[in-house]
Each structure stands twice: as C-alpha cells, then as structure tokens.
Backbone:
C-alpha cells in the first residue's frame, strides 16, 4: 500500500479500547504533498513502522535544532516522506532479533539518520537497526539521557576533540558560542566541571546568571563576534566549542592562541565560513570538525561513558525542561528563533 495513503487513513483512525495495546501509537508525522509541508500529531498503525531488528517502546525524546528544522520545514532535514522526526530517543526494548538486545533492555539512540531518512523518536514506538542503539548508561534515567540528548553528546564529542589535540585546563581559556543553547549549555557544564576556565558567548546576555550557574567564568555579548573581523586578532583562546559558524567561527579562529584547537559542530548563525587560512598556517591552529550523526560506535560509547563520569547531573535541572509530545510542534519555530534556553525533553507518553 502506498505509505502516504496509509498515513491519511491513520490520521482518521481514532483508537478505542478494542485496539490491542500499542498496535496504534501516537507520534508526530511530517508529510509533504500537494497540500504542502506539515507536521501533525497522529495515531500511527504499528504496521507502518519501518524495517529494523529492534522495536523500542519510547519513553522520552528531545527537540534538537535539527528537529526544529525538520518540523518547520525550514531546512532540508527530512529526506523521505512521511517521516516521524526526532534524532534522539530513550526507552525500553519491546522485541528484538538482534544478538545484543533483549526485551526489557534500556536503550538510547542518537543520529544515524533517524528522524531524517528513518522514522525517529518523536513517537511512542520506533523500529530500528540494533547496531544504532547504545545501552542506556546506569547513571541515567531515560529522562536524564534525553536532557543530555544529541546536543549534550555532541558537546562531549567536542570536549573529547579538544583533549585529543592536547588542550588541558592549564592551556588557557575555552570559549563556547551559542552558549545558552543545548550544545553550549552542556559544553559549559562539562568543561567547567573538568577544570577549564570557560568564557560563554551569547546573544542573551540577560541570561548571564544561568550561564554563570553552569560554570562560565565570564559571559560575552555575541554582537562583536558576529561582524567581519581581521584575519588574525590578539591571541586569547586555548580552545573553542563553536555551534554558530559564520563570522563568529571566523573571529574565534583568528583569536585562537598558537596551536589552539577549535571544535566546530554547528551552523546556528550560518553555513558560511568567511575566514582566511592565516590562523592555521601562521599559528598552527587546528579546526576540528565534529559530526555526531555517523560518529563510529566506539567513540559514541566513550562519549556516553564520559558523560556519565564528567557531567554534574545536578546541572540537568537548570539546563532542561520537559514538554509533552503535543507541545513539541509549537515549540519548534521558537527553538529556531533562539527563544528556547538549554534542552527540551519530550515525554512522548504525555500528549
Ligand atoms: P539550540 O537551538 O539549542 O542553540 C543554538 C544557539 O545558537 C542558540 O541558543 C543561540 O545561542 C545561538 N544562535 C541561534 N541563532 C543564532 C544566530 N542567528 N546567530 C548566532 N547565534 C545564534 O541548538 P543546539 O545547541 O541543539 O545546536 C546548535 C547547533 O549545533 C545547530 O546548528 C545544530 O544543527 C548543531 N548540531 C550539530 C551536531 C553535529 O553532529 N555536528 C549535533 C547537534 C547540533 P545564545 O542563546 O547563547 O545566543
């Protein structure tokens, strides 16, 4: 059966007590057809789930920047329609034919194209390739794992990149951009816990108390970083975590100290990189690209092991807030407009 037609039928099906448990589940569905691009909360028939060797009963997902792009259609994130968005999920294995997983196992997932090319986490159920799953670390509840989510796991990958290139707390200051967002907030909490002096760059200087509370030693206004600068500036940063791109990234590279390291993971301010090679060839600066989506399994397991060790869980309450599945759609444009602080956890069983 044509999947689009099937989903139109799903939308009109209202489950009753006669339905077998979880045969029909709730999820956000993105559709694109002659009527346009739209995301809506629907009842989805389990028979429509994609192929996979593990079925997960999802308890929590999140709203990442990429999910905001997918739900609003403001970026070409979704590459197959209809699509359940959600690049993250945490839950319990319901059925499995994968050697590593049994029913009842607690698992989480970040990336691998989930929510882009394969149905994702913003639904009560997901069917996945078991190779994509990570056992939920004992240190975290599913809700806490999703308060960290892809943003927090990416922040950890950035910290690991700084460490891999030899940036120690004694090397000097680390600048974190997009500081009040998801990646930025977790990066500040991690780096300050590890003993680095962290400088937060934000468009929301009114949130300075929040950023100091996470461990930022200093909070700077983004405005001077977001305009064209010189190819080389005064050397300040031993390292950087940049989620913004554009002039902000160019100016940070220009002010990075000799042999410093810039971990670049985002494009919240733009896809371009209006820089020169001067910082790289005259100061030996390293630009370390960070991708969480296809990151090899061993590195993700290490990132989650490190998160369990190096993230002060008492910070998660300040960093995250929880919404129900039904609220996620309305929140997506606000997230893209930079109006959402920290991380958004989605309780998929609260509609
Ligand atoms: P959030 O929306 O939570 O935070 C983004 C932050 O960026 C905002 O809070 C704001 O910081 C800043 N920002 C927003 N708009 C602009 C703008 N126009 N100019 C400059 N700064 C801006 O997103 P995430 O933290 O989840 O993700 C941040 C970026 O990292 C995104 O581009 C995302 O796609 C990318 N990402 C990449 C991953 C990878 O694998 N490479 C994985 C996860 C995320 P403030 O409020 O402090 O001003």
Residues:
């Amino acid at each position: 059966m044509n999947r689009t037609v099937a989903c139109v039928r799903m939308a009109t099906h209202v489950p009753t007590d006669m339905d077998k448990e979880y045969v029909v589940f709730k999820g956000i569905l993105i559709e694109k057809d002659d009527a346009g691009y739209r995301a809506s909360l629907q009842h989805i028939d389990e028979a429509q789930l994609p192929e996979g060797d593990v079925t997960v009963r999802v308890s929590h997902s999140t709203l990442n920047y990429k999910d905001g792009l997918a739900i609003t259609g403001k970026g070409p994130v979704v590459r197959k329609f209809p699509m359940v968005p959600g690049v993250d999920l945490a839950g319990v294995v319901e059925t499995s034919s994968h050697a590593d997983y049994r029913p009842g196992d607690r698992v989480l997932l970040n990336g691998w194209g989930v929510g882009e090319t394969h149905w994702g986490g913003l639904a009560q159920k997901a069917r996945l390739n078991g190779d994509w799953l990570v056992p939920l670390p004992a240190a975290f509840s599913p809700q806490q794992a999703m308060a960290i989510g892809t943003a927090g796991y990416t922040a950890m990958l950035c910290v690991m990149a700084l460490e891999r290139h030899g940036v120690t707390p004694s090397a000097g200051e680390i600048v974190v951009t997009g500081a009040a967002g998801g990646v930025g907030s977790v990066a500040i909490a991690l780096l300050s816990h590890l003993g680095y002096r962290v400088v937060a760059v934000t468009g929301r200087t009114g949130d300075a108390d929040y950023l100091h509370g996470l461990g930022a030693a200093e909070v700077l206004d983004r405005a001077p970083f977001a305009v064209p600068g010189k190819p080389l500036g005064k050397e300040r940063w031993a390292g950087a975590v940049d989620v913004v791109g554009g002039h902000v990234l160019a100016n940070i590279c220009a002010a990075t100290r000799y042999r410093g390291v810039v971990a670049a993971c985002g494009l919240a301010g733009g896809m371009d990189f209006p820089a020169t090679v001067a910082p790289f060839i005259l100061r030996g600066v390293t630009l370390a690209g960070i991708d969480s989506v296809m990151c090899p399994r061993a590195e993700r397991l290490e990132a989650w092991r490190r998160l369990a060790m190096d993230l002060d869980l008492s910070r998660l309450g300040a960093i995250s807030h929880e919404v129900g599945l039904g609220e996620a759609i309305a929140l997506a444009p606000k997230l893209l407009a930079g109006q959402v602080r920290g991380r958004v956890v989605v309780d998929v069983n609260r509609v």
User: Anything to note?
Assistant: The domain at 17-136+320-347 is CATH 3.90.180.10 (Quinone Oxidoreductase; Chain A, domain 1). The first helix runs from residue 3 to 12.
